[in-house]
Amino acid sequence: MSDHELRVSKIRNGTVIDHVTGGQALNVLAILGIDGSSGEEVSVGMNVPSDRLGRKDIVKVEGRELSQDEVDVLSLIAPDATINIVSDYEVVDKRRLDRPEFVEGVLSCPNRNCITTDDEPVDSKFEVLNDEVRCVYCETIIRDRLPDHIDT
Amino acid sequence: MSDHELRVSKIRNGTVIDHVTGGQALNVLAILGIDGSSGEEVSVGMNVPSDRLGRKDIVKVEGRELSQDEVDVLSLIAPDATINIVSDYEVVDKRRLDRPEFVEGVLSCPNRNCITTDDEPVDSKFEVLNDEVRCVYCETIIRDRLPDHIDT
């Protein structure tokens, strides 16, 4: 693929998150805590035509190597994502997405009375089940529209 | 500038919002009502090095021409932005940002008792003053951190 055809250009050093489910790029940024305010160089392509997925999103983060923990949380909203670590324009490592057992501090509990949604200094923590996640504090289950509960 | 140096590639038809204040791209998307779910092809570059601004953001929206009203609202968070309408890879029109007199349905009033923040079907409406905006219903003034009040 020529540079002209690339939706977002190559990065020198950092992480390329490709084959993200179409329309989920902003949720990927939210999970990674990226809103632009800290000056990170980030490129995003949303709903790019893809042979494999029909439509896909791409997120490229310059100068930051995602940890395995961060990558695993992404599996909740973008199970087909591929993660490449890039150094000097070359792919030097690939991360495999493993579905985590628990997710901490990323989702907010929809139960208003949950201790994690009050003013207490308690981070949210959910157990990841097959098709749902369950709050370990109040046992509220989130089944549908998981991205709506990402803590932005 | 070669294609290789472009952070996000050229679009065929649509709108290019360039010279956005660094870190404001996600707020631009929020103002335009773009979250990826409607399938719009969008490219975003955040905190790209810029001679003129130090750091800037770029947003390219494929297949959509922004109206003058939409453009004017952007002036609240990105006063230096330039707007180019693109057709078949060529710039065919430029929009000038005019600071609007009123902003409707974009910001949410921080006053919890305001009629626009209750369950009533009343859209928010703010009058744009010099360095602040004022709710036309409850007269609450937002002075600082305007982006925090963008309705996402």
From TrEMBL, chains A, B:
Source species of the chain: Natronoarchaeum philippinense
Highest taxon, organism lineage: Archaea
Recorded family membership: Belongs to the PyrI family.
GO biological process, one term: pyrimidine nucleotide biosynthetic process
Record-given protein name: Aspartate carbamoyltransferase regulatory chain
Keyword line: Metal-binding, Pyrimidine biosynthesis, Transferase, Zinc
Entries under NCBIfam families matching the protein: ATCase_reg
Gene Ontology molecular functions: metal ion binding; transferase activity
Role played: Involved in allosteric regulation of aspartate carbamoyltransferase.
Pfam families in the cross-refs: PyrI, PyrI_C
Gene encoding the protein: pyrI
Aspartate carbamoyltransferase regulatory subunit N-terminal domain location: 6-97
